[in-house]
Amino acid sequence: MGSGQSVVGEPPVQEAPPAAMPGAWRRHALAAGFLAPAAVFLGVWVIYPTLRTVIRSFFDADGDEFVGLDNYAELFTSDVLLTAIKNNAIWIAVVPALVTAIGLIFAVLTERVSWSVAFKTAVFMPMAVSAFAAGITWRIVYVKNPDQGAVNAGIKVVKDTFDPGGVLAAARPSTDDLRQAGGGIELERPVQPGDVVPLGLTAISTDDVPEGAEQAVRPEPLQGGITGVVWRDFKPGGGEPGRVETEELGLPRVKVELRDAGGDRVAQVESETDGTFAFEDVDPGDYRLAIGQETFARPFGGVSWLGPDLITPAVIIAYIWIWAGFAMVVIAAGLASISREVLEAARTDGGTEWQVFRRVTVPLLAPVLTVVFITMLINVLKVFDIVIAVAPGAVQDDANVLALAMWRTAFAGTSDFGVGSAIAVFIFLLVIPVLLLNIRRFRREI
Amino acid sequence: MTRHRWRFLALLALLLAALVAGCGGDDDDDDEGGAGTTTEAAEDVSGSVSIAGIWIGEEQASFRAVIDGFREQYPDVEVKYNAAGDNLPTVLSTAVEGGNPPDLAAIAQPGLMQDFVTRGALKPLDFAREAAVENFGESVVETGSVDGQFYGLFWKANNKSTIWYNVNVFEDALGADAEAPETWAELVETAQTIKASGIPAFSVAGADGWTLTDLFENIYLRTAGPEKYDQLARHEIKWTDASVKEALREMAKILKDGENIAGGTSGALQTDFETAVGNVFSKNPKAAMIIEGDFVPGVPKVKLKPKQDYDFFAFPSLGGSGPAAVGSGNLVVAFNDTPAVQAFINYLTTPESAEIWVKRGGFVSPNKNLDASAYGDALLRETSTTLTEAETFRFDLSDLAPSAFGATVGQGMWKLLQDFLRNPGNVDGIARQLETAAARAYK
User: Which of A201, B18, B396, B435 has the fewest beta carbons under 10 Å from its own?
Assistant: First the structure.
């Protein structure tokens, strides 16, 4: 603190002190005077709240009754809080190591490319955005509907290239003698030549009826053949299932399969604009009629990133996106200060790039890597804003971390300041060892 | 030099003194607030009023118009509105704990009001009681009372027993002359027909837990009846009661068919209320109807014509229940009672203040002296009359409960009914978890 210097610097120009005030006392008073503002600020905003929180953690929700360690017991018995502790453990195990590793990779690689400044700027950019804003952005990126969420949109593009959805995705049979089997629809009973088979489908919106569809028609039987109709078995009010009625449209270009008793495909035809189809010259015997699964293939509905199962990984990815730039910049600075001669010497001695990296660069960078790792460790222990921003209300229990649990217990509805304080003290206790480690390291460096 | 130094130290000491005084200053302010309540001269009231409320967006603009009406009468009073949105209970609890609440708050939960009364944070509204009884009636004043003492003015009402549908989608699916379902069984059947037409019947705002509590309450009020409803609201019967499970099973009749919900079950869980309404009322609707209150028409961004584009029917009867309505609304409560605050409360009791918002739309006033013709929109007039004419009227149960159970994002009813939407088969499990959460909240 700067105040000490001014005390030391002043004495030579002092006038003779009054007899009642010895020099030593005055110097102390002066030092105390300069320290006082900082001490008051620290006292009011750090020391008092800390003590108050510790004391509060031994009282019940209203703060009237002393409950001993009950609040701490709650911390390790309530499911919600245990999930928070478990998630914090995941964060601690995954994030500092991953951020440091990614930062190291970026730093080493960008050293070798000519446009490294542009790349570094791009990677560092997220640090300039507030974590909350970044969280909101990622929440939108993660939306399940592929029309809205960028991640699912990307997956959909790739998936649709190899496996596009069918024309009648949501369609289902209108009567019970059709059943859904293996992604397609199959007629329950066997058919013989001469039969006329209605294949009614519902749950097709008028917009999804293939173009050129006309009023459905029930075809005449065919000698030695099997005929039928595929149609949208629905008219306003529902209509009578299984009967071709006016206002009901045929479904053109549906691939209808004729299968033998063993289930193998014998023939396949496409339906006409009025939905009719016909298999001609069919040998006598029992057959099965089916509409193949490619007609019904479901379009990609999106991965539920914000659902209870994937929420913690999803938040962690967003967090790493923010902090990777920080790690990269710090490590790159450390990298720049490594003397080139050592690296050259290692290469001259026949070390491969990988060996040089493993045995020379990383050990020399160790102090910087430790700084990044420990900084991230402290950050992760108290992570809060990104979790509350990315995780929707319904899954906040699943995404819970200690700091969020503290806020939700103390402030969000529950208003249990006792347990909230206990969580705060618990976080404090977790941070202390890391802090001590950090302080010791600073001392050594000085 | 020494003199300078001492002068500096003196200055420092002064600064510190000021700082310490500053820390203790809050208490002084509070005392002043309490002392200044004696008399008021109607026209020359001055000062400031700070209000915290849940209204955001369009509703916030409407409330500002109401404030402007007040400023016309009291030009010397500063009025600040702070839109806290869904987080209002949190914001207020924290502000009360910190000893620095706003002057007024428009809260949606009588349960929260009760909390604050217990904590001694609220000022009684005795000064406005007479005007309130005259304009709103005794029963409305009762809704805002705790142990007979009048604390909250029930100023804005909502009918939550309405189901809104896209008229075109309904006609495509059911025919032009189809009648609205009158019983729950008819509704479930209608939903199947709509699904067969190729569009999911329901849009469910699963990301906002309160929409699910509304659905549950509407069912529960009809299957269990008003007495049990009151008992459950006071937690005098357990959530594991057979009546709760029966209501959950009825609710599952709609929720279990994921294909009949826009976006499927997991999609619905990520759909917030605005999006859910948009699913029903847009150029390419993704669902036929949404079960929510009379505020639905205020949400869509596209211009819609009542009756022609959108319409509603009352929440159907269940097991032969008579006309019943679940309602909600906003209670204006006071943390201070300065003359300016009193003037504002008194202004809110007048039909004129309600009329400003009613004319802007999306507002139902329990003020019986308000001329019904003020409602520009015929549908809104209908929803408000079904509300007042219901045989059974109950305030939204989740709002009667302690807010930790009934009105907190990611906790209690909101969260557990979201879990129920995810897995509607789990009636017993959810009932048990509801009871555990309720037992903790109703201490």
Answer: B18
Q: A39 phi and psi, to 5 degrees?
A: -65, -40
- Is residue A249 located within the same domain as residue A316? no
Quote the CA–CA distance of B127 and B319 in Å, as a whole number: 45
Q: What is the pLDDT of residue A20?
A: 55
Closest CA to B181 of B16, B272, B291: B291
Residues of chain A with pLDDT below 50 are 1-11, 13
User: Measured between alpha carbons, how far is A169 from A166 in angstroms, rounded to an integer?
Assistant: 5
Task: pLDDT band for B36, please (50, 70, 90 cuts).
Answer: very low
Q: What share of chain B is helix, strand, coil (3-state, %, to 5)?
A: 55, 15, 30
Q: Is A370 exposed, middle or buried (0-12, 13-18, 19+ CB in 10 A)?
A: middle
Here the tokens at position B31 are: 């005392």
CB distance B196–A238 less than 8 Å?
yes
The DSSP symbol for B87 reads G
Q: Which of B54, B52, B80, B83 is nearest to B340 (CA)?
A: B80
Domain count, chain B: 2
Q: Is the pLDDT of residue B175 over 70?
A: yes
Statement to judge: residues B341 and B399 lie in one domain: no
Reported pTM: 0.77
CB count within 10 Å of CB A64 equals 7
Counting every residue written for chain A, the total comes to 446
Cβ–Cβ gap A393/B19 under 8 Å: no
Classify residue A316: in a domain, yes or no: yes
Using CA atoms, how far apart are residues B327 and B387, in angstroms rounded to an integer?
Answer: 8
Q: Do B93 and A408 touch (CB under 8 A)?
A: no
Q: Distance between terminal CA atoms of chain A?
A: 16
A260-269 long-range contacts (CB < 8 A, ≥24 apart) are: A260/A285, A260/A287, A260/A288, A261/A190, A261/A285, A261/A286, A261/A287, A261/A288, A263/A288, A268/A292
CATH of the domain at B351: 3.40.190.10
Domain that holds residue A341: 70-152+305-445
List of chain B residues whose C-beta atoms are within 8 Å of the C-beta of residue A245: none
- Put simply, the chain A residues between 412 and 441 with a CB less than 8 A from any chain B CB are 412-415, 417
Q: B7 falls in which pLDDT band (50, 70, 90)?
A: low
A268 shares a domain with A320? no
* Residues facing A289 on adjacent strands: A258
User: ipTM > 0.95?
Assistant: no
CATH number assigned to the domain comprising residue A80: 1.10.3720.10
Using alpha carbons only, how large is chain A's radius of gyration in Å?
Answer: 36
Name the residue among A206, A236, A414 with its Cβ closest to that of B175.
A236
Q: Are residues B387 and B401 in the same domain?
A: no
Side-chain-side CA neighbours of B337 within 13 Å: the count stands at: 17
pLDDT tens for B43-82 read 578 889 999 998 988 889 999 999 999 999 999 999 999 9
User: Cβ contact (<8 Å) for A236 and B176?
Assistant: yes
C-beta separation of B346 from B132 below 8 A? no
In the numeric block, the tokens 């017991």 are attached to: A73
> What is the predicted pLDDT for the residue at A60?
86
> What is the end-to-end Cα distance of chain B in Å, rounded?
66
Q: Which of B352, B339, B345 is nearest to B76 (CA)?
A: B339
What's the domain count of chain A?
2
Beta bridge partners of A226: A279
Supply the mean pLDDT for chain B.
85
Express each pLDDT in A266-298 by its tens digit: 899 989 999 999 999 888 888 988 888 777 777
Q: Which domain holds residue B361?
A: 38-159+327-391
